Amino acid sequence: xxxxxxxxxxxxxxxxxxxxxxxxxGADAIVLDLEDAVAAAHKAEARAAVCxxxxxxxxxxxxxxxxINARGTPWxxxxxxxxxxxxxxxxxxxxxxxxxxxxxxxxDGLWPLIxxxxxxxxxxxxxxxxxxxxxxxxxxxxxxxxxxEADAExxxxxxxxxxxxxxxxxxxxxxxxxxxxxxxxxxxxxxxDTRRALRQGFGAKxxxxxxxxAGVHAALHPGEAAIAQARRVLAAAAAxxxxxVALDGAMVDRPVILRAQGVLTRAGLATPTTMNEPxxxxx
Length: 283
Fold this sequence. Notes:
The protein has helices at about 20-25, 45-55, 75-85, 115-120, 125, 140-145, 160-170, 185-200, 210-220, 225-240, 255-265, and strands spanning about 5-10, 30-35, 65-70, 90-95, 110, 115, 135, 175-180, 205, 245, 250.
C-alpha cells in the first residue's frame, strides 16, 4: 500500500535550481509556486521555468502541483494558457472563492486554496466541483481577510478549520491540507501544529522548507504502539467471525474497527480485511 499524501512542499517558481532538490526532499508532493513566492517582475520567468521543468521532469518525481495566481489578477490568464496541454498532474488555485473559479482549469486534479471568508462560505460547493482532489487552507491570508490575530496555537482558527473538514467529508474528499508553519527552525512548533491539524481532522500539511518535511511526517505517523493496538483490534474482529467481541474490556464494534483501519492507513500499511464485522449493539 502506498503511503498517504501528508506533505506538500512549496518551491518558488523563479528558482529552477531548487526544483530537483524539492523533488528529492522526501515530500509527498511539491508545489511549484507562481503566486506569493514570485515577485510581479519575475512572473513570466517563473512560468516559463515551471513549464520547462514539468515537460522534462522524470517519472519518478513526486506529485507535482502548480499554484497559479488567482482569478482577477493580471497573471491568471497567462498561467492557465501556459499550463494547458502539458499533462499537468495537479493545479492549486490561489484564493478560490467559488466553484466557478475552477471552471476550465487544466490539470488532472484541482487543489483549491481557501484563503478568504467568501471561499470558506462556499467551501462545500467548491469541494464538490469536478476534479477537486482536496481542499487546502491558506491560514495566513485567511487571518488577514478576517482581521484575526491568532495565538501561537491558532485557537481562533479552530471553527474555520472545522468547516473545511466538514465540507471535505460532505463532498467525499480526503481530509483537507492545513496551512504552513512559518517558524522554519522551531521543530517543536512544527510538530505541535501538525498534531493539532491531525486532531482537528486534517490529513496533510503545507511546508515552506525541505527541513519541515520529515517533521510533518513524524507528527502524522500514529506510532508503533497505536499500530500494534490497531492490529490487535482487527485481528480480534476477524477472529470473532462476526460476533460481538470485547478486547481489553472494551467492545469492538464497527467504529472501533474503522478507527483501527484508519491508523494503519495513516501509517501507510495495508489493513487486514474483516469480512464479518461485529454488529453494533447500540447507536
